[in-house]
């Protein structure tokens, strides 16, 4: 951060003189004053007019700069940022830039003078020079909703390109061919991304692109009205219009109404973003619903991670999925002779906009859209690791080892060959120490353990996002997979009596937020401790729906003597069953019963690891021999009651396991 001493050195004066110039003291030589003011401009120095603490991170305030606070999308984003900030004891200063670069610069100067600890910003354009003050003052910042060319930092956006493509695809399937688009200002990445998705859909459908049907303006209703009138005045007659946000759609609707045109009979209309009140009472518009709250939540989480970090962090770029909500305005229900709000509500459908296919990415590149690839959400890459290959049913060269529980401090220190600075357990062990242990020990995957509060209540989802982010950063490019392991509180799952019904949606919503954010990173989500009634296919299918939506494998811990639940697990779409701690004969029988339908994650109870080296090796060989036929198995052990694994036997176990390459092959 530029200091008053830097300015003094540049101007060739004392810090006292700089202070006098800043405070407008009269008796300063005009030439000296000019030299100091020039140094201030060149260095981008901002005096702390609020006289806040000169030490970093003492204000406990964040700034949020958005373009239009009257838009429900941005108020929802703000709520997500504030909820996350409040969880960590931060306040949020809200600034409305009106898409105005001058106003944006003024607000940035103001919040930097007040020494906010970090900034979440929706930039008005893609000019990186407008954000230079953030870098000069080394203020942590996260961009939201929009990208900036050359920004080497964190950002959170939604899959605008993929969602626009999906909306146009839907219109084409309904028979619309002359599809127009009304969008925001040139230079705003959201406007450009959505036009690119629109063009990609036309190209994929073999429809010619007519530049007259694309209208740039402002993300405001008057602009939507004006651009629609201009299009119609020019004699253009689209049969569908895609509006790049909800307020633009209101302007389009107003113009069509003034022309006596009906939606969707004359012109279909689709847009980005919900109008919450309208959608609740009259679900009319087909929309690409961006996860506005989650965008704010994730942006704040990234920002607070950067504020808390002891050193530099690699930039993280987050592209969240968008869900299409299909209603009446697209024309999908035109066969209905009579349409009422109740009918519309019952006929609404929601589907996630799929990521771009490889051929679509190639089309985008061939059309000069290489610069847009950073905002593209891609399909999960199956088979990238040993664990993933097993979960997807592929043949592998050896049985992977998955850590089910925290192995204990003694084992960590034994493998790391150093003492830890403090006592640690499953909740407070640092991801870096656990990953370092896994690398040295040869562990293929470790859990990011998600805990509920002691009362059994779920914590704010921000706490889980924050924890997962730390693990993902630590594991980046390490070769060790991090999967999620959630001990599900009993009261979080609805029971036949009705208890838990209010909590279940909160759990599913939290899992959806996590999967939307980390779908590309997660090889597996494991649900442990489920009560018996939760193993029913209908209940379980609801719980794992967020994972299925993103094709993330799901494992469910199976209590001993619960093999009768396998059929329910298969019907629900579960990928793997966790049976660690089963006796050898029961585990072998379970493996045979699972066949090709379920992967088995299993092994003995850790209590056997108090034996001699030969005894430990023999137990591992016996279990591997029972598990290996037909593949589809992962080795894992359950902790003993003491919660500690003897370090040396643990090491013997892993060496023996890694030496096993098939039945009787050591």
UniProtKB/TrEMBL annotation:
One of its GO terms (molecular function) is transcription cis-regulatory region binding. SUPFAM superfamilies: lambda repressor-like DNA-binding domains, Periplasmic binding protein-like I. Gene3D superfamilies: 3.20.20.210, 3.40.50.2300, lambda repressor-like DNA-binding domains. The keyword Nucleotide-binding does not apply. Residues 3-46 form the HTH cro/C1-type domain. Pfam families: LacI, Peripla_BP_3. PROSITE patterns: HTH_CROC1, HTH_LACI_1, HTH_LACI_2. The keyword DNA-binding applies. Residues 2-56 form the HTH lacI-type domain. Keywords: DNA-binding, Repressor, Transcription, Transcription regulation. InterPro entries: Cro/C1-type_HTH, HTH_LacI, LacI/GalR-like_sensor, Lambda_DNA-bd_dom_sf, Peripla_BP_I, UROD/MetE-like_sf. This is LacI family DNA-binding transcriptional regulator. It comes from Anaerolinea thermolimosa. The lineage of its organism: Bacteria, Bacillati, Chloroflexota, Anaerolineae, Anaerolineales.
């Amino acid at each position: 951060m530029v200091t008053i001493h830097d300015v003094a050195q540049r101007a060739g004066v004392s810090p006292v003189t700089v202070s006098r110039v800043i405070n407008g003291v009269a008796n300063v030589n005009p030439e000296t004053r000019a030299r100091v003011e020039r140094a201030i401009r060149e260095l981008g120095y901002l005096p702390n007019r609020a006289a806040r603490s000169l030490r970093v991170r003492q204000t406990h305030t964040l700034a949020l700069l958005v373009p239009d606070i009257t838009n429900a999308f941005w108020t929802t984003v703000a709520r997500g940022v504030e909820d996350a900030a409040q969880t960590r004891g931060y306040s949020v200063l809200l600034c409305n830039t009106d898409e105005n670069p001058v106003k944006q610069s003024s607000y940035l100067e103001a919040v930097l003078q007040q020494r906010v600890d970090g900034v979440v910003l929706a930039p008005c354009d893609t000019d990186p020079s407008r954000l230079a003050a953030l870098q000069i003052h080394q203020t942590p910042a996260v961009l939201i909703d929009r990208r900036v060319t050359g920004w080497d930092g964190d950002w959170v956006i939604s899959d605008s390109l993929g969602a626009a493509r999906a909306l146009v695809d839907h219109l084409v399937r309904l028979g619309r061919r002359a599809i127009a688009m009304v969008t925001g200002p040139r230079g705003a990445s959201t406007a450009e991304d959505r036009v690119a998705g629109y063009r990609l859909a036309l190209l994929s459908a073999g429809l010619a692109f007519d530049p007259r049907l694309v209208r740039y303006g402002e993300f405001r209703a008057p602009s939507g009205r004006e651009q629609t009138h201009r299009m119609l005045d020019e004699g253009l007659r689209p049969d569908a219009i895609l509006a790049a946000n909800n307020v633009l759609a209101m302007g389009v609707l107003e113009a069509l109404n003034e022309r006596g045109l009906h939606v969707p009979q004359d012109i279909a209309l689709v847009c980005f973003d919900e109008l919450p009140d309208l959608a609740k009472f009259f679900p009319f518009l087909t929309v690409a619903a961006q996860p506005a709250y989650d965008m704010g939540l994730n942006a704040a989480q990234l920002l607070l991670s950067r504020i808390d970090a002891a050193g530099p962090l690699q930039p993280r770029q987050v592209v969240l999925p968008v869900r299409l909500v299909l209603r009446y305005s697209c024309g999908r229900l035109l066969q209905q002779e009579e349409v009422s709000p109740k009918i519309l509500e019952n006929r609404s459908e929601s589907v996630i906009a799929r990521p771009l296919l490889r051929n679509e990415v190639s089309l985008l590149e061939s059309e000069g859209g290489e610069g847009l690839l950073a905002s593209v959400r891609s399909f999960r890459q199956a088979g990238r690791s040993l664990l993933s290959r097993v979960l997807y049913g592929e043949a592998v060269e050896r049985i992977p080892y998955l850590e089910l529980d925290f192995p204990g401090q003694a084992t960590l220190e034994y493998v790391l060959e150093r003492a830890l600075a403090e006592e640690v357990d499953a909740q407070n062990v640092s991801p870096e120490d656990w990953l370092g242990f896994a690398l040295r020990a040869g562990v293929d995957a470790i859990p990011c353990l998600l805990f509920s509060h002691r009362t059994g209540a779920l914590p704010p989802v921000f706490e889980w996002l924050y924890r997962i982010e730390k693990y993902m950063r630590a594991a980046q490019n390490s070769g060790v997979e991090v999967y999620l392991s959630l001990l599900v509180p009993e009261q979080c799952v609805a029971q036949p009596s009705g208890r838990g019904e209010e909590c279940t949606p909160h759990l599913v919503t939290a899992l959806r937020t996590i999967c939307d954010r980390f779908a590309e990173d997660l090889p597996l989500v494991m649900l442990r401790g489920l009560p018996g009634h939760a193993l029913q296919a209908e209940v379980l299918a609801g719980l794992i729906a967020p994972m299925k939506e993103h094709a993330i494998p799901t494992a469910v811990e199976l209590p001993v003597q619960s093999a009768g639940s396998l059929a329910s697990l298969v019907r629900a779409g579960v990928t793997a069953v966790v049976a660690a701690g089963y006796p050898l004969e029961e585990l072998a029988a379970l493996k045979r019963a699972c066949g090709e339908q379920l992967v088995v994650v299993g092994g003995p109870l850790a209590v056997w690891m108090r034996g001699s080296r030969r005894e430990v090796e023999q137990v591992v060989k016996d279990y591997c021999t029972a598990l290996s036929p037909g593949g589809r198995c992962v080795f894992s052990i359950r902790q003993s009651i003491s919660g500690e694994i003897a370090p040396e036997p643990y090491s013997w176990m892993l060496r023996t396991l890694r030496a096993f390459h098939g039945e009787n092959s050591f």
